[in-house]
């Protein structure tokens, strides 16, 4: 397998459930990202793991919890979500250059479509 | 704060025609990158083209080219000889440079339909 793989592709959960989204990259990249894509809104960066250092967007509710056990895997743990959290969640990866500088080319997965009932 | 604005939510053109997607941005940074990303229906988003702000020459990639107007903060994408496979959402994006994993700012996107 190559590229960025996300599972599951579709997830329906109740507001009291706990679930996790998984992302795996086989590109040898050293940065990984979670984005939220909602209709008619810009892509919203949620979390970044850069050279194993987490850069967090403070506006992300605590019901979303990321985990990056190594440079190839990224998780997004979900608990007590709200219906407005329904969206497409995109994982991406990139290779950081010298001194961890980002060249801006992101490689995306196909996304996990989340529906919160 | 940087912002990216795509004023065309949706466009349709006939196959083989040329189409231009608009993008404007606002920043006080002097060094940055601009991007166009393509998201086909139910498929992965991919990078189409990248422009470094310090370069005066407009970037081109086969049928895709940009018109970068730094003073006007405008960054449009031209698709020549459009093909059915060009049907997708197109996102304009901005990133200051250098950046250590910093956020890439995306616009809301333009949904492009190529009609047979």
Structure commentary:
The complex is a heterodimer of chains A (117) and B (116). In chain A, strands 2, 4, 5, 6, 9, 10 and 11 form a 7-stranded mixed beta sheet that branches. In chain A, strand 7 and strand 8 (73-79) form a beta hairpin. Chain A has no helices and 11 strands. Chain A is mostly beta strands and 117 residues long. Chain B has 116 residues and is an all-beta fold. In chain B, the strands form 3 sheets. In chain B, strands 2, 5, 6, 10, 11 and 12 form a 6-stranded mixed beta sheet that branches. A 4-stranded antiparallel beta sheet of chain B has the order 3-9-8-7, with no helix packed on it. Chain B has a two-stranded antiparallel sheet with strand order 1-4. Classes of the chains: A mainly beta (117), B mainly beta (116). The A-B interface holds A 3-4, 31, 40-43, 45, 48-51, 53, 55, 57, 90, 92, 94, 96, 99-110 and B 4, 9, 33, 35, 37, 42-47, 50, 91, 93, 95, 97-109.
């Amino acid at each position: 397998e190559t590229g960025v793989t996300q599972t599951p592709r579709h997830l329906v959960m109740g507001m009291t459930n706990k679930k996790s989204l998984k992302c795996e990259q086989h590109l040898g990249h050293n940065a990984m990202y979670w984005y939220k894509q909602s209709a008619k809104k810009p892509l919203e960066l949620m979390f970044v793991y850069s050279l194993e250092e987490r850069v967090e967007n403070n506006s992300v509710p605590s019901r979303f919890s990321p985990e990056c056990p190594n440079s190839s895997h990224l998780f997004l743990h979900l608990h007590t979500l709200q219906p407005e959290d329904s969206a497409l969640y995109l994982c991406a990866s990139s290779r950081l250059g010298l001194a961890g500088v980002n060249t801006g080319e992101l490689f995306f997965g196909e996304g996990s479509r989340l529906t919160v009932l | 704060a940087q912002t990216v604005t795509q004023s065309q939510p949706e466009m349709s053109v006939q196959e083989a025609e040329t189409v231009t997607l608009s993008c404007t941005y606002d920043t006080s940074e002097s060094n940055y990158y601009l991007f166009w990303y393509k998201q086909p229906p139910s498929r992965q988003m991919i990078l189409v083209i990248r422009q470094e702000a310090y370069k005066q020459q407009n970037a081109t990639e086969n049928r895709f080219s940009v018109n970068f107007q730094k003073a006007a903060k405008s960054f449009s994408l031209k698709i020549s000889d459009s093909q059915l496979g060009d049907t997708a959402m197109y996102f304009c994006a901005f990133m200051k440079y250098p950046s250590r994993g910093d956020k890439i700012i995306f616009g809301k996107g333009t949904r492009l339909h190529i009609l047979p």
